Structure formats: structure tokens, C-alpha cells
Amino acid sequence: MDKTRLLQQGYEIVRAFIAQENFRRVSVNKGDYIVKQHQEVNEIYWASPAHFAIVHTAKNGKRLSLGDYSLADNLFGEFEFFSGELSPFDMIATAKTDLIAIPTQTFTELLLRETKVAFWLNHRISSIYQHTMNIALERSLYPLKFNIIKDMVTRHVSPTQSIHHSYMYQEAERFGCTERAYARIIRELIDEGLIIKSHDKSTLRPLDIERLQDYLDKYQG
């Protein structure tokens, strides 16, 4: 059977299952934790829509943001459910969000009963893992300037609207660096004529995509 069709069917079964059952509901406001770092997760949460940020705070106080997400729907806690480990991340609502809390036993029974749901969930977890590892590897193995440029180029060519933070420290957290280090790279790129600040100074805009891409190619060639 076609993989895409299997994934769609598994997804539709999940949505129908959630709609039919009378699960406990939880409302969280902007800035509230959906899941907290080091928290033991005893339920699987479903949000539709889902607006959230993922952040890890190291013991030395440094913070790494894995991005802000605005999705039609999303599961929270499925990684911890399978691993049996505490959550490695804070998952923070960036808008008022209604959560549906699914008991882990009920979730287990669904997976055992509906193989297409298990197939869909495996695909979902694998995709998230690869995406997260790609971010972690690039942050670790390439210079800060490379990562900031790549992020700008990706945002520029993306068909979806990018999320820009109001404060520089929040942008710095996306690269696991200090606000000072982030500001230094931005100043370099402006001085080199590669980017410019918008009129209201709230966003950064590439001026020369080809030169920015050449910089990336130099490190990846």
C-alpha cells in the first residue's frame, strides 16, 4: 500500500479517536508550560491548533531554542511515553492553547488496536528526530555565522511566514549563543552589505541572497 496513504489514514484515525472520546481538557495561556523540562509525563497531550516553542536549558544556564511552531495540530509527550525518561525540553505555549489529555493506557490500547496509527506515529517520531538532530549537528559543527546566515536564507525562501522574536536574546537562544555574540554577527553582516534591518527594526532582511549562499557553500563544499 502507498506510504502516503497509510500515513494519512493513520492520522485520520487519531483525529477521529480524539473527537469521539471524552478526555480531560486543559487550557494553557501564552507563556505557560505544556510540558516542563525534567517533568515526568503521565499523559499524552493533543492540541489543535498548536502554537508553541521548544527550549532546553543546560546546567550552566545556557539556553537553546529549537524553534517556534504554529501547527494545525500536535502531540506532546509521546517521546517520553516511549522512552520512559523525563522531558529534556520545556514546551511553552506561544498562544492560548487547549490541550486534550489522553491517558497513557488508552494511548497504548489505540496503538495495539490500530496498526496504521502506530505506522503514522513511527513516521512522525522519526521525522522529528531527524529534524532535531540536523539542527543540533549544524549548531555544533558549523560556526555561529554560518548558522545565522543559513537560518536567514531558509526563512527568506520558505513559503510559510517566519516567526521573528521581539527581543534579541530570544533570537540568540535559537543558536545557543549569548545576545552579545549574536549581535556581533548581525553587525558584521550589515557592515558587509549582506542584510538590512526593516524600517521598524523588528526583522532582518537579506540584501544579497547569492553572496549569502556562496558563504554557506564555502563551508559545505
TrEMBL record:
CDD domains: CAP_ED (cd00038). It comes from the Bacteria. It holds the Pfam family cNMP_binding. Residues 31-111 form the Cyclic nucleotide-binding domain. SUPFAM superfamilies: cAMP-binding domain-like. InterPro entries: cNMP-bd_dom, cNMP-bd_dom_sf, RmlC-like_jellyroll. This is cAMP-binding protein.
